[in-house]
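An example makes the point: we let one protein speak, the chain in one-letter code, the fold tokenised, and here it is:
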Amino acid sequence: MRKLLIKTPPTIARDYIVGFTHYIPGGEGIDIIYYEQEGIYLEGPEPEHAIKLALKNIAEQIEKYKISRIPASGNDKRYKLIDRIFQCLQVSPELPIHDIFYKVADNLYSINITKGCERFTLPSLLKPDIYEFNRTPGYVGSRKFDEEYPLESVLFSIAGYLGTRIGYTRFSRDAVLLIPEVIWRHEPSLELKFAVETFYEKIRGGVLDISPEPAFILWLSLILRSYRRLSKLRIYVISEPAGANPATIKNHLRIDLEMFRESPLWRELVKSIDRREAIKEGYTHELIDLLEMALSQRSDLAVKISLYLYETIVGAKSVEETYYIASRDFLSLKMRKGEIPKDVSLAYKVAEELRRAQKKPRG
């Protein structure tokens, strides 16, 4: 049994590396992944082989979903911070990104790293937290942030960024990243890889927004309902670096989806969605429509009902209270034979689903 240490920077790049380790397949050279203060340990008979497979998994995803660039600031390009990493691994940075990572996977542990290639400063993409709010760019407190990190750490951070990006917000075009919370000790799993592919294939128009948070959390719980190992998550919204603009963290959420999976009421709602989607191809449930309407800020009612529904699921409001709020506009308009807007109709249908879910026998 052997151990391989990936040293982690004290920035968001550490979370990117955590995401990268979730591209390591089980039973392929690594038995256990665990975390210590100095970094992430991979333990197994062939950790280098497992890392090679993780890089190839990310390369396949880059190729499949036609990812064409690694975001870089003007300074990154000026000093060739990313290009030099690939050149040190004897890979041309002019190649398509997927080819770069395929070749990097082959070369990483099979070539001798030359002098001057052992350590690198972090490109902007890997330190957006250093530019956050009113901090001086390039400084942590009063100390200049110019530390260098091992080539492997910077490489895995970049790969992890690409592997955890689930798309862009539809309006501001900021990157949205989905990263599992650190579990002190766990076995390798590819659930994150499959979850990211679900976003690429099903959410083609991009993630609408992560605000209002209750609507986003419910929506995310529905999208990830098949991935039981992805429960405690970090969501980052990143303004990617470009030109004179460095990478910036626009928003950050820590989410625990387990409370929804343990809720009998929520499980019944999910079963209803699953049943209908199994019957009708391309079907979108009224609840998903309502949540997406809330996330697009197209309806104050949708925002309000998503909040009530969230509070009902977590036990802060009763089903009866939420049913009343969600259905009253619809019933009033129906009695007056008025035109019923889409958000009002959706709210009523969700209210009916909620009441049916409450009446289902628990088993």
Summary: DSSP finds 14 helices and 14 strands in the chain. Residues 132-140 have pLDDT under 50 and may be disordered.
